[in-house]
Design a protein that fits this description.
Structural class: mainly alpha
Helix content: 55-70%
Number of helices: 4
Largest sheet: none
Strand content: under 5%
Number of strands: 0
Mean pLDDT: 87
Low-confidence stretches: none
Length: 67
């Protein structure tokens, strides 16, 4: 199911605002921490469209590695 444009950005900003954390970039400064905490294997299964993207991305990385 496709979500509204910028829905995840809005959710991230809301959660940061409600937490009281200072985030001058709107949460972008936490991107690495968020990605490192994500369970991409679970996301791949639960979100089919993102799963397809992750599989394509892995295939591209593997192709570059093989070169």
């Amino acid at each position: 199911m496709k979500c509204a444009k910028d829905e995840y950005k809005k959710l991230l900003r809301r959660e940061i605002r409600e937490s009281g954390i200072d985030a001058p970039l709107g949460g972008e400064e936490f991107a690495e921490d968020i990605v490192m905490a994500m369970n991409l294997g679970q996301v791949e299964v639960r979100e089919p469209s993102l799963g397809l993207f992750l599989k394509s991305l892995k295939a591209q990385f593997n192709m570059w590695r093989a070169q």
